[in-house]
Amino acid sequence: MRTPPPLMALSGTAFAILLLIAFMMGANHVAARIAFDHGVDVATAVTFRSAVTALVVVALLRIYKVPFQLTARHRRALPAMGLLVGIQSLCLYSAVARLPVAIALLAFNTYPLWTALWARVVYGQKPPPSLVRAMPVMLFGLALALDVLGASSGLGASGQWQQIGAGVAFALTAAATFGLALVLTQHETGDLDGRLRTASTMGIVAVLALAGVASQGGFQLPQALAGWWGLVGLTVLYGTAFTIMFTVLPRLGVVGNSAIMNIEPIFALVLAWAILGQAIAPVQVLGGLVVVATVVWLGLRKN
């Protein structure tokens, strides 16, 4: 992505749309959990979600007559980005299937730390001082949210990690791969139209997920009506949110990945409590607020 422009004051409409996108992204993961609880597997969910989103964005490219022009550098980078986002998608949904939805998203929200790490490793860029200062705060908040010592659950550290270890590993892997994808986006495809980049990435993710479906003998579809609602919901919510991000927001002069949208875990927490009956301890809520506030602060800091 290009160097972010100076932050602009948000209009009421732009702010409301950003909140709507965050809400739909949080609701997408709650819908995914409903689908998983009724027979859908991760590969099936990612295939439906990515394929529909890719088709919608390709249609928009046709409508707006965006030229399909790729340089040699783009052709090298886009498959790698598609692979990384494919891994991220599979891992994040795998985390959502194993953890309370909000906890999975909070662990994933550590991706700014991974982005800075990959920028240092791959391109030799030093992390900004603001990120260095924020890092221990974010990790402390995440430790509270995960209840790493098992105090809130009463399981103790060993019992708690037996219960959440696999889900946390998937969420952090999703954060790590997404961070690397962001770094490649900035340095290798920053001059490419965002809609074209999204269509390419989602198309590659759909193909990879479809290969996963084929390797397991076919789609694992819902076994109850609620599962179908979940599968349709995650597809529609994700596709709609992405369509808004790459069509409406640019016209409003708002950066697509505005920090306001990082309140997604808060929406997910409320929705998961209301719809799924998932509840976490007050100290975990406090930890989640620390993580979200830190990420939002990083996104709103002066560049």
UniProtKB/TrEMBL annotation:
The chain crosses the membrane at residues 42-64, 76-95, 101-119, 131-152, 164-184, 196-214, 226-247, 259-276, 282-300. It comes from the Bacteria. InterPro entries: EamA_dom, EmrE-like. The keyword rRNA processing does not apply. Residues 17-145, 167-298 form the EamA domain. It holds the Pfam family EamA. The keyword Secreted does not apply. Keywords: Membrane, Transmembrane, Transmembrane helix. This is Drug/metabolite transporter (DMT)-like permease. It comes from Hydrogenophaga palleronii.
